[in-house]
Amino acid sequence: MPSRLKHPQIGRVIDANYNRAKEGLRVCEDIFRFLRDDPKVTARFKKIRHGVTAAAAGFGLKDMAAARDITGDVGRATIGRESRRDGVGDIYYANAQRVKESLRVLEEFAKLKDARVAAGFKKLRYAVYDIEKETLGKI
After folding, report:
1. What is the mean pLDDT of residues 12-41?
2. Looking at the chain, which terminus has fewer C-beta neighbours within 10 angstroms, N or C?
């Protein structure tokens, strides 16, 4: 079966941002699941996380993983600020930002493939904006 990703470099962008979005969503979800015991917010984050998986399926999850180049990633090093957090609120805020940024990148690169997929990522991004606004005061 031919790759659904025409350019490996674009596949790397999509793969990195897909993983970044899913990881950030899981951190936010777990904060509300285990630390806040909030089933509604937990469910919302979980729904978005599953939405990211569904939206990215058109890129081919195997193709995305095949495009991955961890050893060749020039931005792999952790910067100082990422090495420490000043509490759960800081963890939540950092991961919410990571998710929004990643969804924006996925939205832009999805435009190369399918405008409907791009619109789906945009919808997910706005859902994160909404949850973030509602929850920042709860952490």
Report:
1. 97
2. N
Per the listing, tokens 């979005």 go with 21
Q: Which residue has the higher pLDDT, 7 or 121?
A: 121
The model's pTM? 0.90
| Long-range Cβ contact pairs of 109-115 (< 8 A, separation 24 or more) | 109/10, 109/13, 109/14, 109/17, 110/55, 112/10, 113/58, 113/59, 114/58
State how far the Cα of 8 lies from the Cα of 125, in Å rounded to an integer: 25
Give yes or no for residue 97 having a pLDDT over 50: yes
User: Where residue 139 falls among pLDDT bands split at 50, 70, 90?
Assistant: confident
DSSP conformation letters of 64-95: HHHH--STT-TT-SPPGGGG--SSHHHHHHHH
Distance of alpha carbon 6 from the chain centroid: 22
Distance CA 35, CA 139 (A): 9
- Helix, strand, coil fractions of the chain, as percent rounded to 5: 75, 0, 25
Q: Report the alpha-carbon angle 111-44-58, nearest 5.
A: 30
Greater model confidence, 71 or 8: 71
